[in-house]
Amino acid sequence: MVEIYGIKNCNTVKKALDWLVEHKIAYTFHDFKKEPAQEKKLREWAEKVSWEQLVNKKGTTWRKLTKEEQDDVKDISSAIQVLLANNSMIKRPVIECNDLVLLGFDDNVYLSTLKAPK
């Protein structure tokens, strides 16, 4: 089973959800607006993809931080604290499947890692 985390109205999350439906892959969706990410989950993800990849530095939430706040994000602990306070800053979607963690949407990566049942 695929677990997908994100924000329902995020265009990248929509692409991922549409892709899963198109490829008939069952999933459970966790909306950060209804179920905020927890520290334990963020640490699990950071062990698999690195905290640097989890922090979406291209989004508006990151850009709204002051330069000092951005500069303070320098390790896993500081990244997790800012992500807990700003779930919308987590790179989306986060997909968990078979002990893998995938970030964002990439058709080729999905095709090679998320196998549809035959």
Overall tally of domains: 1
- In angstroms, what is the radius of gyration? 14 Å
In terms of per-residue confidence, which ranges show pLDDT below 50 for 5 or more consecutive residues? none
**Average predicted local confidence, pLDDT:** 94
The H-level CATH homologous superfamily, spelled out, is: Glutaredoxin
Characterise the protein shown here.
This is Arsenate reductase. Pfam families: ArsC. Belongs to the ArsC family. The chain has 118 residues and is of the alpha+beta class. It has a single domain (2-113), classed as Glutaredoxin (3-Layer(aba) Sandwich). It contains seven helices and four strands. The protein has helices at 11-22, 39-49, 51-54, 60-64, 67-71, 76-85, 107-113, and strands at 2-6, 27-31, 94-97, 100-103. It has a four-stranded mixed sheet with strand order 2-1-3-4. A hairpin with a 2-residue loop joins strand 3 (94-97) and strand 4 (100-103). Helix 2 (39-49) packs across helix 6 (76-85). The radius of gyration is 14 Å and the shape is globular. The two termini are 15 Å apart. The mean pLDDT is 94.
